Automatic annotation (TrEMBL):
Residues 88-282 form the VWFA domain. It comes from the Bacteria. The chain crosses the membrane at residues 6-22, 305-324. Gene3D superfamilies: von Willebrand factor, type A domain. This is VWA domain-containing protein. It comes from Eiseniibacteriota bacterium. Keywords: Cell membrane, Membrane, Transmembrane, Transmembrane helix.
Length: 328
């Protein structure tokens, strides 16, 4: 609440002084009729009597409201709006068979990759994020969206067997870049996670990276997997599940070249903890650009206050000349 013309509130000083003098004058005035005692008069405790005692207070109240209306009281309502310049991001996640390796605790590489990707998505604000899965070929799982809950559900649904086995890194980069090229955002990012060497698809990763650079896409490449050999589960119908040690074959040279070509960075994640740190670091490199603006919208309350004062004054005059008319 504020007053647009607060100086009019100074009129309450002479008004209060006049009201006080009128009260004192009424107290000093000689009575119309002299009585030695009021005991013989009937009691004045009815509704009409009580209303008659309240009637003289309506006019000062009405005048006070009129003076208040002159000061133009205004009620404010704060309005907030989010002004954002979101980033367009595509997450490309490897679903090849080597992602079954269980060097990332508590389970295999794909399981940890899903959890970390969901954590990354939930930490973004006003960024449009899409999802690409790849193995022997690349497939768009989700277009760019702001529905983070729905996207996290799709990430949870990523599993082995959805695509033919293999590692089509170049195809994943090309498809992600094609999707980002359609996006209206100024900043476009691809986060590529793989644990292998490109061995499928019609385009090699470096050529795809050059295409991505041409449409303004930055690539952050992540090589997942421990250095050396990793335990790989094998389910045998007779012997049951047992583990064999399989060498981790991350093509770091190619992934570094892909990142360098597009102005991004390459990261090596050899554990679940390091993978989580990598996503956090990428999030810090590509912060969401969100600005909160707030302003107050003021509404004039003066006409309402003036109408209330006028209504009270009209009520006082109406009652004073009718049911509460006093004699003499």
């Amino acid at each position: 609440m504020r007053f647009a013309e607060p100086w009019y509130l100074l009129l309450f000083i002479p008004f209060a002084l006049a009201f006080w003098l009128a009260r004192r004058r009424a107290a000093w005035r000689d009575p119309e009729l002299g009585y030695s005692s009021l005991a013989a008069l009937p009691p004045t405790s009815g509704i009409r009597a009580r209303a008659a005692r309240l009637l003289p207070r309506l006019r000062p109240l009405a005048v006070g409201l009129v003076l208040l209306a002159a000061a133009r009281p205004q009620a404010g309502r704060e309005i907030r709006e989010v002004v954002s310049e979101g980033i367009d991001i595509v997450l490309a996640i490897d679903l090849s068979g080597s992602m079954r390796s269980e060097d990332f605790r508590p389970r295999n590489r794909l399981y940890v990759a899903r959890q970390v990707a969901k954590e990354f998505v939930r930490g973004r604000v006003q960024d449009r994020i899409g999802l690409v899965a790849f193995a022997g070929r690349s497939e768009l799982i989700s277009p760019l969206t702001l529905d983070y809950d729905g996207l996290c559900a799709l990430i949870d649904g990523l599993d082995f067997g959805q695509l033919p086995d293999g590692t089509a890194v170049g195809a994943a980069i090309a498809q992600s870049a094609e999707r980002l090229n359609r996006a209206p955002g100024k900043s476009k990012v691809l986060i590529l996670l793989t644990d292998g060497i490109n061995n499928a698809g019609a385009v090699d990763p470096v050529t795809a990276a050059k295409l991505a650079k041409a449409v303004g896409v930055r690539i952050y490449a992540i090589g997942a997997g421990t250095q050396g050999a990793a335990p790989f589960p094998v389910d045998d119908p007779i012997l049951g599940r047992h583990y064999v040690w399989v060498a981790s074959e991350v093509d770091e040279a190619t992934l570094k070249e892909v990142a360098r070509e597009t102005g991004g960075r390459y990261f090596r994640a050899t554990s679940a903890e390091l993978l989580s740190q990598v996503y956090h670091e990428i999030g810090a490199l590509e912060p969401s650009r969100v600005e909160m603006r707030s302003y107050t919208q003021w509404a004039e309350m003066g006409p309402r206050v003036l109408a209330l004062g006028g209504a009270l004054l009209a009520l006082e005059l109406l009652l004073g000349f009718t049911v509460l008319n006093r004699y003499p």
